[in-house]
Amino acid sequence: MQRTKTRPTILVIEDYPDSRHMLKLLLEDLGYRVLTAANGTDALVAVSNNQLDLVLTDFNLPDMTAPTVIRSLRQSGNGSAHIPIVVLTAVDAYEYRELAAEAGCDAFLSKPTDFPILEQTLARLLAEGRPRKASPELFAWQEKSES
């Protein structure tokens, strides 16, 4: 799939309306065009109907998990196999990271979102495109700040 020549387009897949809206606003403030989906089924439709540059998804969706969405995208014949995918989830467990990586995720970040890290991750993946293999630092355990 050819990258857009205008602002990069990110699909945010998040079932909680407030979180979905917050991410949309924050990403738009960074200059991205943002599409949203509340579940995996709607996300797969959005991917097939739009030219995307990156997908940002929650792990647990109402109708499927992020690894199911990721595998569907990676195996599709519509060019979405090369779109970078970032999982952003409240469940920061090694097993979830492993499942996401095995499905073809490019980065895994935990909630609450460390926005500068999210911003850097998105910028890096959009600049470099989908890596052949996910970088270990994009799956590293995030240190929780105690504020």
Write the SSE topology.
Elements: E1 9-13, H1 17-29, E2 33-37, H2 40-49, E3 54-57, H3 66-75, E4 85-89, H4 94-103, E5 107-110, H5 115-128
Parallel strand pairs: 1-2, 1-3, 3-4, 4-5
Helix pairs in contact: 2-3, 3-4
Description of the molecule:
With 147 residues, the protein is α/β, with parallel strands linked by helices. The protein has one domain: 3-Layer(aba) Sandwich (Rossmann fold). It contains five helices and five strands; from the N terminus they run βαβαβαβαβα. The protein has helices spanning 17-29, 40-49, 66-75, 94-103, 115-128; strands spanning 9-13, 33-37, 54-57, 85-89, 107-110. The chain has a five-stranded parallel sheet, with helices on both faces. Strand 3 (54-57), helix 3 (66-75) and strand 4 form a beta-alpha-beta unit. The longest helix has 14 residues, at 115-128. It is globular.
C-alpha-based Rg, rounded? 14 Å
Number of helices: 5
Task: Name the structural class.
Answer: alpha/beta
Largest sheet: 5 strands, parallel
* Euclidean distance between termini CA atoms: 42 Å
Order of SSEs: EHEHEHEHEH
Unreliable stretches (pLDDT < 50, length at least 5) are 140-147
- What characteristic shape results from the CA principal axes? globular
Number of DSSP E strands: 5
Do you know the CATH architecture?
3-Layer(aba) Sandwich
**Mean pLDDT score, rounded?**
87
